[in-house]
Design a protein that fits this description.
The protein has about 260 residues and is α+β, with helices and mostly antiparallel strands. The protein is built from three helices and 20 strands. The N and C termini lie far apart (about 45 Å).
Length: about 260
């Protein structure tokens, strides 16, 4: 355990020194690149023995490790390939010097050192182009829910129509999204509701929705709202509006409130 701890500390120091050197070389460009990478990375993974880290973003795949010759590699992002009959996505990428294949499986994964549980198991095959064989390593990861979702949103449109307080029993529906915990709560127009989020890159689902059991008026549209929420699969955020849609079209539009 002491050996692993020393290796981990060494890896952290090396990574920190590289970051500092990079900032000293060009602080303005470094800040811009870091900000862009943090805002567009949607999946992160780590592994032990050897220690490694992975970020998948809309523009880049970045792999860092203690593996000699593979300390800091960057690839252009590619579209994932979904395996037939299995809940596994694969990414294949290469640059002038290296090649990488990343497999992400939706199953519980336990960190071999900390014991922490992550929702995805990650397998990586990586090699420099001068090497004959790939090196295989494994670890755990999770998708990073879009931080812009973390707010309070009040309903403006339902199934293509503007909504009014009269459509509900008390007030307009609202949801409060907690992106870090992948949970939400709110008011459905008649009852309080809670639920969980499932997020994968641009995919967003509202699931496990429960509500209080207060009786609602006949013309109340809470049932239609909850159904639309459950049927949504994609989202967009623009001009302080959150739009939820599915392949059939736009379902819900919310306005951001402070």
């Amino acid at each position: 355990m002491k050996k692993y701890l020393i290796l981990f500390i060494t890896f952290s120091l090396v990574y920190s020194c590289k970051s500092v050197n990079s900032k000293n070389t060009n602080s303005n460009n470094s800040s811009e690149n870091t900000s862009e990478e943090d805002s567009t990375s949607y999946f992160k993974a780590t592994g032990n023995e050897p220690f490694w880290g992975l970020k998948i973003g809309k523009k880049k795949i970045v792999f860092t490790s203690l593996i000699q010759g593979k300390e800091n590699l960057s690839f252009s992002s590619t579209k994932p390939i979904r395996a037939m009959g299995a809940n596994i996505k694969s990414y294949k990428a290469s640059n002038a010097n290296s090649s990488i294949t990343i497999s992400i499986q939706h199953t519980d994964c336990q960190n071999s050192m900390s014991g922490a549980i992550s929702p995805y198991k990650v397998s990586i095959e990586i090699k420099n182009n001068t090497e004959a064989n790939y090196q295989k390593i494994e670890g755990c990861g999770k998708y990073i829910t879009d931080y812009r979702l973390h707010d309070i949103w009040v309903l403006e449109e339902l199934n293509g129509y503007k909504v009014f307080v009269a459509d509900f029993q008390k007030e307009l529906h609202r949801i409060e999204i907690h992106a870090e915990e992948n949970k939400f709560m709110g008011f459905g127009g008649c009852n309080s509701i809670t639920g969980s989020l499932f997020f994968e890159n641009d995919l967003l689902r509202f699931s496990n929705i429960t509500s209080t059991l207060m009786a609602c008026s006949e013309n109340n549209k809470e049932d239609k709202f909850v159904k639309a929420l459950q049927n949504s699969t994609t989202y967009s955020i623009k001009n302080n509006r959150l739009t939820l849609s599915n392949p059939s079209g736009k379902l819900l539009v919310f306005r951001k409130v402070d």
